[in-house]
Amino acid sequence: MSRPRFGLALGGGGARGFAHIGVLQRLEDLGVHLDVITGTSMGALVAAAYIKTGSAAAALEELNQLVESKAFKKLGMHLINVKGRGGESFWHQVSSAIQDRIIINLAHSKLGLVREDRIIEAMELIITEDKWTDSGTALGIVATDLYHGDDVYFTEGALLPAVMASIAIPGFLPPVQIAGKTLVDGGVSQQVPIRLAREMGADFVLAVDVGQDVEPLSDMDNAMAIMSQSENIRSCHYRDMLNREADVLLLPEMPGVHWSAYDQRETFIDLGFQAFERQRVTLEEAWYRKKHPLGGWLKSLF
């Protein structure tokens, strides 16, 4: 009887996705071999870096170089964190309000706030070859068909456009055209790519969700805030439903941390460690039962 295939599904969440590195390092420490690794959005970029380099440490080095590069800084990720900009003074608040208005005006006339050539320049620092497998580990990436709402899976072919499609945050990064489809961030339809891992043959799936739960808003006095909060509630309920399909789920605790906080990536890695340790015994027992069904059944009895 062959060993069951182990799959790791890495969810989207921007900078919070550095928690995936902590999980990968702990899996390496335990000697767990990944047969399948799937990624959505930032999870796709981490997974691609892992397949390219062959280790969590080497993947982290590449990702750090990306974040510290001029090409990445030109993407202007800091502009998205509206709550994190400005200061307490009147003039800081006025400056932030003006920036917000500029962004809103641009959003009415462009497919995304960041030019495609800048995204390519940054992503090419990581995606240097079309590598989909390494040492028996297969890579899978999820994007979303903007017109039909379908999940779109990539497991071979050109890697750069697949990653670009998976990270195409709607409204911020422009959609990507592939094979006649208009694609955006995989997190729109599959925040954590558990289903893709199953489709790629994983018998056991460890999922890592670095998204955020619904948080109370202090200012619910305008239509935009109400619509935004309603969408957050809807997406969280859908994400939680999909997460039940994992054998074991890791939820790094990151309340109130915006996805653009790339300066906190070391903290996120530690949070990935902590989330893994909280579930380590559960993971080991569940993986043992999957590998040894009869032994696991007897163990549960005694």
Describe the structure.
By secondary structure, this protein is of the alpha/beta class. The chain is 45% helix and 14% strand. It has eleven helices and nine strands. Strands 1, 2, 3, 4, 5, 6, 7, 8 and 9 form a nine-stranded mixed beta sheet that branches. Helix 1 runs antiparallel to helix 3 and helix 2 packs across helix 3. The two termini are 25 Å apart. About 6% of the residues have low confidence.
Short description:
The protein is an alpha/beta fold. Helices cover 45% and strands 14% of the residues.
Structural class call reads alpha/beta
Oligomer: single chain
Gross geometry: globular
The residue fraction in helices comes out at: 40-55%
Radius of gyration: 20 Å
Distance between the termini: 25 Å
Largest sheet: 9 strands, mixed
Give the uncertain stretches in residue-range form.
82-99
The number of helical segments is 11
The sequence of SSEs as H and E is: EHEHHHHHEEEHEEHEHEHH
* Percent of residues in β-strands: 5-15%
Query: Roughly what is the average pLDDT, rounded to an integer?
Result: 85
How many beta-strand segments? 9
